[in-house]
Specification:
Order of helices and strands: HHEHHEE
Strand content: 15-25%
Number of strands: 3
Strand order of the largest sheet: 1-3-2
Radius of gyration: 13 Å
Number of helices: 4
Mean pLDDT: 83
Distance between the termini: 19 Å
Length: about 100
């Protein structure tokens, strides 16, 4: 039931190189604003380590990361843990946000 294209599916082996390339493309030339493109960016990033809601919005241009995480869990069958944390925004205001962690 994997809806990600086979040639662009991220793996743990190619995650660091893909994440670096993907990060370069997020501002302003990310791979699109469709839910599928956002899921792909999010997955590539999660393969490199945990990610907060603030980071997903700021760095990946994913305004509703919780929805994309839900889709990755239920469409792709991924085990993504949510941990509540406190984090400052770029303006210095603290918020309680989600920290998403892809489990092996």
């Amino acid at each position: 039931m994997n809806s990600l294209p086979a040639d662009t599916t991220a793996t743990k082996e190619n995650a660091p190189a893909r994440a670096e390339a993907e990060m370069k493309n997020t501002k302003p030339n990310h791979s699109g604003n469709s839910a599928a493109a956002q899921r792909q960016r999010l997955l590539v990033r999660l393969l490199t380590g945990p990610l907060t809601t603030i980071e997903a919005r700021r760095d990946l241009d994913i305004l509703m990361p919780a929805a994309r995480v839900h889709e990755l869990r239920h469409r792709e069958g991924l085990d993504i843990q949510t941990i509540r944390v406190s984090q400052e925004t770029d303006s210095g205001i603290k918020h309680n946000v989600a920290l998403y962690v892809l489990q092996p």
